[in-house]
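Worked example 2:
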Amino acid sequence: MRFALAAAALLLLAPAVLSDFRLSLLAKFLCFAIIAVGIGLAWGQGGMLVLGQGLFFGLGGYCMGMHMKIVDAGPGNLPDILTYSGQYDSLPALWKPFTSAWFAVPMAILLPMAIAALLGAAVFRQRIRGAYFAILSQALAGAFVIVIVGNLSLTGGTNGLTNFQTFFGLSVSSPQDQRILYFVVAIALLLVFLATRQLVVGRYGRLLIAARDDEDRVRFLGYDPARVKLVAYVLAAGMAGLAGALFVPVVGIISPALLGIVPSIEMVIWVALGGRTALAWAAAGAIIVNWAKSSISEQFPSGWLYLQGLLFVAVILFLPKGVAGGVEHLRMYASRVPIRGKPRVAPPKTLEAVTAAPQKAPKPTSKPSTEDVR
Protein backbone atom coordinates (compact mmCIF):
# COMPACT_ATOMS: atom_id res chain seq x y z
CA MET A 1 0.00 0.00 0.00
CA ARG A 2 2.88 2.36 0.72
CA PHE A 3 4.22 1.71 -2.76
CA ALA A 4 0.83 2.67 -4.23
CA LEU A 5 0.74 5.89 -2.18
CA ALA A 6 4.24 6.79 -3.33
CA ALA A 7 3.26 6.15 -6.94
CA ALA A 8 0.18 8.35 -6.54
CA ALA A 9 2.34 11.15 -5.15
CA LEU A 10 4.70 10.87 -8.13
CA LEU A 11 1.77 11.05 -10.53
CA LEU A 12 0.61 14.27 -8.88
CA LEU A 13 4.09 15.79 -9.13
CA ALA A 14 4.65 14.73 -12.75
CA PRO A 15 3.02 17.80 -14.39
CA ALA A 16 5.43 20.07 -12.51
CA VAL A 17 8.59 18.38 -13.79
CA LEU A 18 7.69 16.92 -17.20
CA SER A 19 7.33 18.71 -20.51
CA ASP A 20 4.02 18.68 -22.36
CA PHE A 21 5.23 15.93 -24.68
CA ARG A 22 6.49 13.68 -21.87
CA LEU A 23 3.34 14.30 -19.84
CA SER A 24 1.22 13.24 -22.81
CA LEU A 25 3.32 10.07 -23.08
CA LEU A 26 2.82 9.38 -19.38
CA ALA A 27 -0.95 9.78 -19.77
CA LYS A 28 -0.79 7.19 -22.55
CA PHE A 29 1.15 4.82 -20.30
CA LEU A 30 -1.38 5.31 -17.51
CA CYS A 31 -4.05 4.03 -19.88
CA PHE A 32 -1.92 0.93 -20.33
CA ALA A 33 -1.60 0.66 -16.55
CA ILE A 34 -5.39 0.39 -16.26
CA ILE A 35 -5.24 -2.61 -18.59
CA ALA A 36 -2.43 -4.07 -16.47
CA VAL A 37 -4.52 -3.87 -13.29
CA GLY A 38 -7.24 -5.89 -15.01
CA ILE A 39 -4.72 -8.48 -16.22
CA GLY A 40 -3.29 -8.65 -12.71
CA LEU A 41 -6.77 -9.47 -11.42
CA ALA A 42 -7.61 -12.08 -14.06
CA TRP A 43 -4.17 -13.66 -14.51
CA GLY A 44 -2.33 -12.93 -11.29
CA GLN A 45 -5.19 -13.66 -8.91
CA GLY A 46 -7.40 -15.89 -11.05
CA GLY A 47 -4.82 -17.82 -13.05
CA MET A 48 -6.42 -16.97 -16.43
CA LEU A 49 -3.80 -16.17 -19.06
CA VAL A 50 -5.68 -13.48 -21.00
CA LEU A 51 -4.08 -13.00 -24.40
CA GLY A 52 -6.98 -11.13 -25.97
CA GLN A 53 -7.22 -7.91 -23.98
CA GLY A 54 -6.50 -5.98 -27.18
CA LEU A 55 -10.03 -6.86 -28.28
CA PHE A 56 -11.64 -5.16 -25.28
CA PHE A 57 -9.23 -2.23 -25.46
CA GLY A 58 -10.17 -1.74 -29.12
CA LEU A 59 -13.90 -1.96 -28.46
CA GLY A 60 -13.68 0.81 -25.87
CA GLY A 61 -11.49 2.90 -28.16
CA TYR A 62 -13.75 2.59 -31.18
CA CYS A 63 -16.87 3.38 -29.13
CA MET A 64 -15.28 6.61 -27.92
CA GLY A 65 -13.71 7.38 -31.31
CA MET A 66 -17.03 7.12 -33.15
CA HIS A 67 -18.67 9.50 -30.69
CA MET A 68 -15.83 12.02 -30.96
CA LYS A 69 -15.97 11.88 -34.76
CA ILE A 70 -19.70 12.62 -34.76
CA VAL A 71 -19.24 15.55 -32.37
CA ASP A 72 -16.37 16.98 -34.43
CA ALA A 73 -18.46 16.82 -37.62
CA GLY A 74 -21.27 18.86 -36.10
CA PRO A 75 -25.06 18.43 -36.28
CA GLY A 76 -26.31 17.21 -39.64
CA ASN A 77 -22.84 16.51 -41.04
CA LEU A 78 -21.11 13.23 -41.72
CA PRO A 79 -17.78 12.40 -40.08
CA ASP A 80 -14.95 12.61 -42.59
CA ILE A 81 -14.26 8.88 -42.33
CA LEU A 82 -17.72 8.17 -43.80
CA THR A 83 -17.36 10.58 -46.72
CA TYR A 84 -14.26 9.01 -48.24
CA SER A 85 -16.09 6.04 -49.77
CA GLY A 86 -19.10 8.06 -50.94
CA GLN A 87 -21.49 5.30 -49.84
CA TYR A 88 -23.36 7.19 -47.13
CA ASP A 89 -25.65 10.20 -47.22
CA SER A 90 -26.55 9.89 -43.53
CA LEU A 91 -25.17 8.20 -40.46
CA PRO A 92 -25.15 4.39 -40.76
CA ALA A 93 -27.16 2.39 -38.24
CA LEU A 94 -23.94 1.33 -36.49
CA TRP A 95 -22.95 4.95 -35.87
CA LYS A 96 -26.29 6.51 -34.93
CA PRO A 97 -26.43 5.40 -31.26
CA PHE A 98 -22.98 6.90 -30.64
CA THR A 99 -24.33 10.39 -31.27
CA SER A 100 -25.21 10.46 -27.57
CA ALA A 101 -22.44 10.58 -25.00
CA TRP A 102 -24.80 8.89 -22.54
CA PHE A 103 -24.70 5.87 -24.83
CA ALA A 104 -21.09 5.97 -26.05
CA VAL A 105 -19.33 6.27 -22.68
CA PRO A 106 -21.13 3.41 -20.88
CA MET A 107 -20.97 1.28 -24.03
CA ALA A 108 -17.17 1.64 -24.11
CA ILE A 109 -17.12 -0.30 -20.83
CA LEU A 110 -20.27 -2.44 -21.01
CA LEU A 111 -19.74 -3.81 -24.53
CA PRO A 112 -16.35 -5.38 -23.68
CA MET A 113 -17.83 -6.75 -20.46
CA ALA A 114 -20.78 -8.27 -22.33
CA ILE A 115 -18.53 -10.01 -24.87
CA ALA A 116 -16.26 -11.24 -22.08
CA ALA A 117 -19.30 -12.57 -20.22
CA LEU A 118 -20.48 -14.53 -23.27
CA LEU A 119 -17.03 -15.95 -23.96
CA GLY A 120 -16.27 -16.68 -20.32
CA ALA A 121 -19.60 -18.37 -19.65
CA ALA A 122 -19.05 -20.71 -22.60
CA VAL A 123 -15.42 -21.44 -21.78
CA PHE A 124 -15.43 -21.77 -17.99
CA ARG A 125 -18.52 -24.00 -17.95
CA GLN A 126 -16.62 -26.44 -20.14
CA ARG A 127 -13.66 -26.22 -17.75
CA ILE A 128 -11.39 -24.95 -20.52
CA ARG A 129 -8.31 -23.35 -19.00
CA GLY A 130 -4.59 -22.90 -19.39
CA ALA A 131 -3.18 -22.70 -22.89
CA TYR A 132 -6.54 -23.54 -24.50
CA PHE A 133 -8.21 -20.54 -22.90
CA ALA A 134 -5.28 -18.31 -23.89
CA ILE A 135 -5.52 -19.46 -27.51
CA LEU A 136 -9.28 -18.84 -27.63
CA SER A 137 -8.97 -15.31 -26.27
CA GLN A 138 -6.13 -14.60 -28.67
CA ALA A 139 -8.09 -15.91 -31.64
CA LEU A 140 -11.01 -13.64 -30.72
CA ALA A 141 -8.71 -10.61 -30.77
CA GLY A 142 -7.38 -11.64 -34.18
CA ALA A 143 -10.90 -12.07 -35.54
CA PHE A 144 -11.84 -8.59 -34.32
CA VAL A 145 -8.93 -7.09 -36.24
CA ILE A 146 -10.08 -8.86 -39.40
CA VAL A 147 -13.59 -7.42 -38.97
CA ILE A 148 -12.23 -3.89 -38.47
CA VAL A 149 -9.91 -4.06 -41.47
CA GLY A 150 -12.57 -5.62 -43.69
CA ASN A 151 -15.11 -2.81 -43.09
CA LEU A 152 -13.11 0.06 -44.53
CA SER A 153 -16.05 2.37 -45.18
CA LEU A 154 -17.33 2.08 -41.58
CA THR A 155 -14.17 1.81 -39.49
CA GLY A 156 -11.41 3.34 -41.60
CA GLY A 157 -9.76 -0.03 -42.18
CA THR A 158 -6.09 -0.22 -41.31
CA ASN A 159 -5.93 3.57 -40.85
CA GLY A 160 -8.49 3.49 -38.07
CA LEU A 161 -10.06 6.64 -36.65
CA THR A 162 -7.89 9.72 -36.27
CA ASN A 163 -7.80 13.53 -36.56
CA PHE A 164 -9.93 14.13 -33.48
CA GLN A 165 -10.50 17.72 -32.37
CA THR A 166 -12.44 17.82 -29.11
CA PHE A 167 -13.24 15.62 -26.14
CA PHE A 168 -16.20 16.86 -24.09
CA GLY A 169 -15.26 20.47 -24.71
CA LEU A 170 -11.50 19.97 -24.33
CA SER A 171 -9.22 20.55 -27.29
CA VAL A 172 -7.22 17.42 -28.04
CA SER A 173 -4.36 19.48 -29.49
CA SER A 174 -4.15 22.03 -26.65
CA PRO A 175 -1.28 21.46 -24.15
CA GLN A 176 -3.37 22.93 -21.33
CA ASP A 177 -6.28 20.60 -22.06
CA GLN A 178 -3.88 17.68 -22.39
CA ARG A 179 -2.84 18.33 -18.80
CA ILE A 180 -6.49 18.09 -17.77
CA LEU A 181 -6.75 14.82 -19.66
CA TYR A 182 -3.69 13.58 -17.81
CA PHE A 183 -5.37 14.17 -14.45
CA VAL A 184 -8.56 12.49 -15.72
CA VAL A 185 -6.59 9.37 -16.66
CA ALA A 186 -4.58 9.44 -13.41
CA ILE A 187 -7.75 9.67 -11.31
CA ALA A 188 -9.33 6.86 -13.31
CA LEU A 189 -6.28 4.66 -12.72
CA LEU A 190 -6.30 5.43 -9.00
CA LEU A 191 -10.00 4.59 -8.66
CA VAL A 192 -9.62 1.37 -10.66
CA PHE A 193 -6.63 0.32 -8.57
CA LEU A 194 -8.30 1.04 -5.22
CA ALA A 195 -11.52 -0.72 -6.20
CA THR A 196 -9.64 -3.77 -7.50
CA ARG A 197 -7.40 -3.94 -4.46
CA GLN A 198 -10.41 -3.77 -2.16
CA LEU A 199 -11.91 -6.64 -4.12
CA VAL A 200 -8.72 -8.71 -3.91
CA VAL A 201 -8.16 -8.33 -0.17
CA GLY A 202 -11.75 -9.25 0.62
CA ARG A 203 -13.63 -12.52 0.65
CA TYR A 204 -13.96 -12.65 -3.13
CA GLY A 205 -10.20 -12.27 -3.56
CA ARG A 206 -9.53 -15.25 -1.32
CA LEU A 207 -12.14 -17.26 -3.19
CA LEU A 208 -10.59 -16.30 -6.55
CA ILE A 209 -7.15 -17.46 -5.42
CA ALA A 210 -8.66 -20.70 -4.17
CA ALA A 211 -10.35 -21.25 -7.54
CA ARG A 212 -7.01 -20.61 -9.23
CA ASP A 213 -5.17 -23.15 -7.09
CA ASP A 214 -7.74 -25.93 -6.76
CA GLU A 215 -11.09 -25.74 -8.55
CA ASP A 216 -12.23 -29.15 -7.33
CA ARG A 217 -11.83 -28.19 -3.68
CA VAL A 218 -13.73 -24.93 -4.25
CA ARG A 219 -16.50 -26.90 -5.92
CA PHE A 220 -16.53 -29.34 -3.00
CA LEU A 221 -17.03 -26.42 -0.60
CA GLY A 222 -20.19 -25.43 -2.46
CA TYR A 223 -18.92 -22.60 -4.66
CA ASP A 224 -18.96 -22.41 -8.44
CA PRO A 225 -15.37 -21.73 -9.63
CA ALA A 226 -16.62 -20.93 -13.13
CA ARG A 227 -18.72 -18.08 -11.79
CA VAL A 228 -15.88 -16.84 -9.59
CA LYS A 229 -13.47 -16.69 -12.52
CA LEU A 230 -16.09 -15.18 -14.81
CA VAL A 231 -16.45 -12.15 -12.56
CA ALA A 232 -12.71 -11.44 -12.69
CA TYR A 233 -12.56 -11.92 -16.45
CA VAL A 234 -15.51 -9.59 -17.06
CA LEU A 235 -14.07 -6.91 -14.77
CA ALA A 236 -10.70 -7.12 -16.55
CA ALA A 237 -12.49 -6.63 -19.88
CA GLY A 238 -14.29 -3.57 -18.52
CA MET A 239 -11.00 -2.06 -17.37
CA ALA A 240 -9.50 -2.61 -20.83
CA GLY A 241 -12.53 -0.93 -22.41
CA LEU A 242 -12.17 2.05 -20.07
CA ALA A 243 -8.48 2.29 -20.97
CA GLY A 244 -9.34 2.28 -24.67
CA ALA A 245 -11.91 5.04 -24.23
CA LEU A 246 -9.36 7.24 -22.42
CA PHE A 247 -6.58 6.34 -24.85
CA VAL A 248 -8.36 7.90 -27.85
CA PRO A 249 -8.45 11.54 -26.67
CA VAL A 250 -4.97 11.27 -25.15
CA VAL A 251 -3.21 9.85 -28.23
CA GLY A 252 -5.64 10.94 -30.94
CA ILE A 253 -5.94 7.66 -32.82
CA ILE A 254 -7.38 4.16 -32.58
CA SER A 255 -6.45 1.61 -35.22
CA PRO A 256 -6.21 -2.19 -35.64
CA ALA A 257 -2.45 -2.00 -35.12
CA LEU A 258 -3.09 -1.15 -31.45
CA LEU A 259 -5.44 -4.00 -30.62
CA GLY A 260 -4.40 -7.17 -32.41
CA ILE A 261 -2.62 -10.30 -31.25
CA VAL A 262 0.81 -8.72 -30.86
CA PRO A 263 -0.39 -5.82 -28.64
CA SER A 264 -2.35 -8.32 -26.54
CA ILE A 265 0.81 -10.34 -25.92
CA GLU A 266 2.73 -7.17 -25.06
CA MET A 267 0.13 -6.34 -22.42
CA VAL A 268 0.79 -9.66 -20.71
CA ILE A 269 4.55 -9.03 -20.89
CA TRP A 270 4.12 -5.72 -19.01
CA VAL A 271 2.39 -7.52 -16.17
CA ALA A 272 4.85 -10.42 -16.16
CA LEU A 273 7.79 -8.03 -15.87
CA GLY A 274 6.19 -5.99 -13.10
CA GLY A 275 4.71 -8.89 -11.16
CA ARG A 276 1.36 -10.45 -11.90
CA THR A 277 0.45 -11.21 -8.29
CA ALA A 278 0.86 -7.59 -7.13
CA LEU A 279 -1.59 -5.09 -8.63
CA ALA A 280 0.60 -2.06 -7.97
CA TRP A 281 3.64 -3.67 -9.58
CA ALA A 282 1.55 -4.84 -12.53
CA ALA A 283 0.54 -1.22 -13.19
CA ALA A 284 4.12 -0.05 -12.61
CA GLY A 285 5.35 -2.67 -15.07
CA ALA A 286 3.13 -1.24 -17.80
CA ILE A 287 4.42 2.29 -17.16
CA ILE A 288 8.10 1.36 -16.82
CA VAL A 289 8.22 -0.95 -19.84
CA ASN A 290 6.50 1.53 -22.14
CA TRP A 291 8.61 4.42 -20.85
CA ALA A 292 11.74 2.37 -21.56
CA LYS A 293 10.36 1.45 -24.98
CA SER A 294 9.82 5.11 -25.85
CA SER A 295 13.22 6.24 -24.54
CA ILE A 296 15.23 3.42 -26.11
CA SER A 297 13.38 3.56 -29.43
CA GLU A 298 14.34 7.21 -29.79
CA GLN A 299 18.02 6.22 -29.79
CA PHE A 300 17.82 2.68 -31.22
CA PRO A 301 14.62 2.32 -33.29
CA SER A 302 15.11 -1.38 -34.03
CA GLY A 303 16.75 -2.39 -30.77
CA TRP A 304 13.77 -2.36 -28.44
CA LEU A 305 12.18 -5.59 -29.70
CA TYR A 306 15.37 -7.54 -29.00
CA LEU A 307 15.78 -5.93 -25.58
CA GLN A 308 12.17 -6.63 -24.67
CA GLY A 309 12.61 -10.28 -25.60
CA LEU A 310 15.78 -10.55 -23.52
CA LEU A 311 14.09 -8.88 -20.56
CA PHE A 312 11.14 -11.25 -20.74
CA VAL A 313 13.38 -14.32 -20.90
CA ALA A 314 15.52 -13.03 -18.02
CA VAL A 315 12.48 -12.39 -15.85
CA ILE A 316 11.03 -15.83 -16.56
CA LEU A 317 14.33 -17.51 -15.68
CA PHE A 318 15.49 -15.45 -12.70
CA LEU A 319 12.41 -13.54 -11.49
CA PRO A 320 9.39 -15.76 -12.16
CA LYS A 321 7.26 -13.49 -9.97
CA GLY A 322 8.46 -10.35 -11.75
CA VAL A 323 10.13 -7.34 -10.22
CA ALA A 324 7.66 -7.53 -7.33
CA GLY A 325 8.96 -10.99 -6.43
CA GLY A 326 12.57 -9.79 -6.64
CA VAL A 327 11.85 -6.84 -4.35
CA GLU A 328 10.13 -9.12 -1.85
CA HIS A 329 13.09 -11.50 -1.93
CA LEU A 330 15.50 -8.63 -1.26
CA ARG A 331 13.32 -7.42 1.59
CA MET A 332 13.36 -10.84 3.22
CA TYR A 333 17.12 -11.07 2.75
CA ALA A 334 17.67 -7.60 4.21
CA SER A 335 15.67 -8.53 7.32
CA ARG A 336 18.30 -11.18 8.10
CA VAL A 337 21.41 -9.06 7.49
CA PRO A 338 23.12 -8.14 10.80
CA ILE A 339 23.60 -4.52 11.80
CA ARG A 340 26.91 -3.84 13.62
CA GLY A 341 27.26 -7.48 14.50
CA LYS A 342 23.69 -7.90 15.78
CA PRO A 343 21.21 -9.90 13.70
CA ARG A 344 17.89 -8.26 12.80
CA VAL A 345 16.03 -11.48 13.59
CA ALA A 346 16.39 -13.09 17.01
CA PRO A 347 18.49 -16.28 16.73
CA PRO A 348 16.60 -19.53 17.28
CA LYS A 349 17.03 -21.33 20.56
CA THR A 350 19.60 -24.10 20.66
CA LEU A 351 18.61 -27.72 21.17
CA GLU A 352 20.09 -27.71 24.66
CA ALA A 353 18.08 -24.64 25.64
CA VAL A 354 14.86 -26.13 24.32
CA THR A 355 15.31 -29.58 25.91
CA ALA A 356 16.75 -28.41 29.23
CA ALA A 357 14.57 -29.25 32.23
CA PRO A 358 12.95 -26.27 33.90
CA GLN A 359 14.57 -25.21 37.13
CA LYS A 360 12.62 -25.62 40.34
CA ALA A 361 11.77 -22.66 42.50
CA PRO A 362 14.13 -22.28 45.52
CA LYS A 363 12.83 -23.51 48.88
CA PRO A 364 12.12 -20.89 51.56
CA THR A 365 14.94 -20.55 54.09
CA SER A 366 12.66 -20.07 57.11
CA LYS A 367 9.23 -21.24 58.11
CA PRO A 368 6.47 -18.66 57.93
CA SER A 369 5.26 -17.41 61.31
CA THR A 370 1.68 -17.70 62.50
CA GLU A 371 1.24 -13.95 62.07
CA ASP A 372 2.20 -14.22 58.38
CA VAL A 373 -0.31 -17.01 57.90
CA ARG A 374 -3.02 -14.91 59.52
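The longest strand covers residues 161-162. DSSP finds 17 helices and four strands in the chain.
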